[in-house]
Amino acid sequence: MIAGDAVVSRDDSSGDGPVVTQMRTAQIALPFPEPFGAGDWLLTTTHNAVVMLQTTTRHRGFGYAFAFDEGHGRALVAALEALEDVVVGSAVWDTEGLRGRLVRKANFTGTTGLSMSAIGAIDLAMWDLKGRISDQPVHALLGAGRRGTPAYASGGPHNKPLNLLEREVAGYLEDGYRALKVKIPPDPTVAIERIRCVTKWAGPNVSVMFDANQQLELKTALRIAEAATECGAYWLEEPFPYWDLRSHSELRDRAGIRLALGETLYGEHAFEDAINRRATDVVMVNLHKVGGITGWCRVKAIAESSGVGISSHIMPEVSAHVMPSAQPDQLLEYMTLSAGLYEEPPKPRNGVLFAAPGPGFGLEPSPAVKHALELDR
Predict the structure, then answer these.
(1) Are the C-beta atoms of 62 and 128 separated by less than 8 Å?
(2) What SS3 string covers the chain?
(3) Per-residue pLDDT reduced to its tens digit, 293-338
């Protein structure tokens, strides 16, 4: 674990309202229940860089970003710490202004990747503060008229044998999910077998998505897309590397299947490019990679004005507050990878995830997070 803090005194005499007086960061490792095969990767642990911001009013807000290896988890903490001097002293309500200052600070080392993830974690903490100070949940601050979002169960690692995958799918159906997603490997024969099996197990009234994790070539993707279309798949996710928008666009034109991408795009400009190049039907927005809720709102506006769907990429506890402001038929991705960061994380009920009640995100950090941030002393 890595922890650090800085305290700078400010007052509210400027009229800008509460300002940030303290920022603390730490790294928290949360193991997967079992090794999780996704593309070329066998994932075992999320390494979360958590950030706490405290204000002159003694309110605290929390955010985080994550990586799948310890080294990049440390790098995320370092990226957060590099922005500390910009954050401390900032007015809580000025998230747009803070976003601009953070981007300028990161200009010479790049404003995507680690820098944008750090900006996103900070922005999440700022929105948590805005809700806690105003005594409103974040979804209300975003103007959402509802608290629940239809969720899809996300799992099915491609290293899981079919007999165990069938049990997993049955469990999702028993829990009331009406949508689910599984991984497929780059081998088209194996991938097509999984597609046919899963859609059969799920039945005709369940939306089924398949995630290729950026591993396919166009010829193979066309073959897999044809099988997925025949089986009524809801979407095919990231068949190609995230930067290969040309292949995504060509597959859409030639195969006619709905595509989803975006979990590895950083900032709103990357999403705008993907949409303008007709590379996707659904954008999947990761809240820390897009730059927090401020970035999410920008992508939502671009997507909706272009007739493109929007979904979340994991981080369900905080995504539950942004997705209610999207169209009611848009789906939230549910996985439990970040549940260990919170005392009582919300869980879907009959396939619907409701944002935690209470101000801000309505979430209290877990004892492990409080200990790492040295808030339990």
Answers:
(1) yes
(2) CCEEEEECCCCCCCCCCCEEEEEEEEEEEEEEEEEEEECCEEEEEEEEEEEEEEECCCCEEEEEEEECCHHHHHHHHHHHHHCHHHHCCCECCCHHHHHHHHHHHCHHHCCCHHHHHHHHHHHHHHHHHHHHHHCCEHHHHCCCCCCEEEEEEECCCCCCCHHHHHHHHHHHHHCCCCEEEEECCCCHHHHHHHHHHHHHHHCCCCEEEEECCCCCCHHHHHHHHHHHHHCCCCEEECCCCCCCHHHHHHHHHHHCCCEEECCCCCHHHHHHHHHHCCCCCEEEECCCCCCHHHHHHHHHHHHHHHCCEEEECCCHHHHHHHHHHCCCCCCEEECCCCHHHECCCCCCECCEEECCCCCECCCCECHHHHHHCCCCC
(3) 999 999 999 999 999 999 999 999 999 999 999 988 999 999 999 9
**DSSP bridge partners of 362:** none
Domain with CATH 3.30.390.10 in the chain: 3-135+367-372
Q: Per-residue pLDDT averaged across 169-189, rounded?
A: 98
Q: What percent of the chain has pLDDT over 90?
A: 94
Residues contacting 281, CB < 8 A, separation 6+: 235, 252, 258, 259, 260, 308, 309
Q: What class, spelled out in words, does domain 140-354 have in CATH?
A: alpha beta
| Residue in 79, 88, 78, 92 with CA at minimum distance from that of residue 22 | 88
- Compute the chain's Rg from CA coordinates: 20
Fold for 3-135+367-372, please state it. Answer: Enolase-like; domain 1 (3.30.390)
Q: How far apart are CA 68 and CA 31, in angstroms?
A: 10
Among candidate residues 46, 52, 21, the one with its CA nearest the CA of residue 124: 52
Look up residue 249 and give its two tokens.
């666009």
pLDDT in tens, 248-261: 999 999 998 999 99
Q: Where in the chain is the domain with CATH 3.20.20.120?
A: 140-354
Q: What six digits make up the tokens of 2?
A: 């890595």
The average pLDDT across 2-15 equals 36
